[in-house]
Design brief:
The chain has helices at about 5-10, 15-50, 55-85. With about 90 residues, it is mostly helical. Helix 2 packs antiparallel against helix 3. The longest helix is centred in the middle third of the chain and has 36 residues, at about 15-50.
């Protein structure tokens, strides 16, 4: 079965595309959060390597920013789940 057939079957009642879009959105939110936190970690390691005396400040800022990124990703995943449960 090809991808086009799957999409056409999902579009038959109109609700399938919304659920598929919600699933894709939740996946993209998780990928985005992972990439963002990875970049924060890498930049923090570079910052600590350049200025070891500022490690405490860098670590605390890194944790706060990572928590904000996780909150946005969780919010996006919850919205996607609400869309998928409402449409199903």
């Amino acid at each position: 079965m090809s991808l086009l057939n799957i999409i056409l079957q999902a579009a038959a009642d109109g609700k399938g595309l919304a659920v598929m879009g919600a699933g894709i959105g939740a996946g993209l939110a998780a990928i985005g959060a992972g990439l963002g936190i990875g970049r924060i970690g890498g930049s923090a390691m570079e910052g600590v390597a350049r200025q070891p005396e500022a490690a405490g400040k860098i670590q605390s800022m890194m944790i706060i920013i990572a928590a904000l990124i996780e909150a946005v990703a969780l919010f996006a995943a919850v919205i996607c789940l609400l869309i998928s449960f409402k449409m199903a």
